[in-house]
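Tokens in:
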């Protein structure tokens, strides 16, 4: 296992152990940032995630949400915001959040850990950017 993978997995485990159920993403993001992760690119519906880290890039391949040929849902900003607020309130699992984002027409999203932003993209250039708060991990 590479240093990049080992560092990423250790940071993810730590983040999951301290992350609150409600509003937990900023804690995960801060742990990853402190571990040297600079960006995270998610590709839906493939459930493929690329992490750019100070130790090198790492890819994680989850179970794809669709197989074969499928129509891409139209980008629906309000449905995306609803999926975000549901997740932020601790009322959905991460797979449920990904599915709701896909149904809202999100084909990828990019996390910038230094800027504390997440940008969500549709396939026709649509974009929605949201900032998340800084947190103190103590």
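Residues out:
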């Amino acid at each position: 296992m590479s240093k990049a993978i080992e560092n990423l997995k250790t940071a993810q485990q730590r983040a999951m152990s301290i992350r609150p159920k409600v509003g937990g993403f900023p804690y995960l993001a801060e742990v990853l940032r402190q571990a040297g992760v600079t960006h995270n690119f998610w590709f839906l519906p493939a459930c493929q995630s690329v992490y750019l880290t100070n130790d090198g890039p790492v890819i994680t391949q989850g179970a794809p949400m669709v197989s074969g040929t499928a129509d891409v849902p139209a980008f629906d900003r309000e449905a995306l915001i609803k999926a975000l607020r549901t997740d932020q309130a601790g009322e959905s699992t991460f797979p449920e959040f990904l599915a709701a984002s896909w149904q809202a027409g999100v084909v990828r999203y990019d996390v910038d850990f230094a800027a504390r932003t997440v940008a969500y993209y549709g396939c026709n250039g649509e974009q929605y950017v949201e900032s998340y708060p800084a947190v103190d991990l103590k």
